[in-house]
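Here's a chain:
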Amino acid sequence: MHALRDIADARGGIAQLAEQTGLRRETLYRTLSKRGNPQLSSLLVILKATGLRLTVTA
């Protein structure tokens, strides 16, 4: 989650990510902290906004 925070910061910051995702800034700060524990729905929205994908393979 902390790495996603670095990506968000590099791409315009948390405020811009909040606009793109529709999530509150406070929620994003908490979610993208080292101890963040997001719901899958939030994680997917954040990944989409940053242009990343989550892949699970066997």
Notes: Residues 2-50 form one domain. The two ends are 23 Å apart (CA to CA).
